[in-house]
Write a structure and sequence with these properties.
It is built from three helices and seven strands; from the N terminus they run ββαββαβββα. The longest helix has 20 residues, at 29-48. The model is unreliable at 139-148 (pLDDT under 50). It has one domain (4-140). A hairpin with an 8-residue loop joins strand 3 (57-59) and strand 4. It is an alpha/beta fold.
Amino acid sequence: MARYVFGTPSAKESALLWLPAKDSSVPTGDEFEDACEFLEKKLRTYLRSTKLRRDACYLRGDFWGDRTQYLEVDELRALTPSFFQTVSDWLKELEGQWRVAIPHELLPGGAIIVYDRVVRFLGDNANPPVSLAEVLPQHAKSTSRSDC
């Protein structure tokens, strides 16, 4: 059986397969698709309300057998504290049963993981950022990725 971590794990553990609690079930493909469609709809509505391109970020739809949705970001300026709060609110609507991983080579540790109540940066915790605002402004100047 795959090794899972539960709850809001440490940044190092966040890179592993995830379930919200030890008694949580591994999602079925249908559950994964339902959550993905819910988040996609919310994301489209959010992007329309901003000055971001429609394809500034999108869910990849990768299902690894846990409760993680992967969000690709083409425009780093989309990653604002209010965006993370919005994603967290969506996850609360899903009763904390999912998390969103945002991988990007310019982010500290290579990814940010959004849970319904906390945001984690992957990587070395020796010098963790104090806040999103401490990290994001320096990367938000990058308007897009050329490898998408």
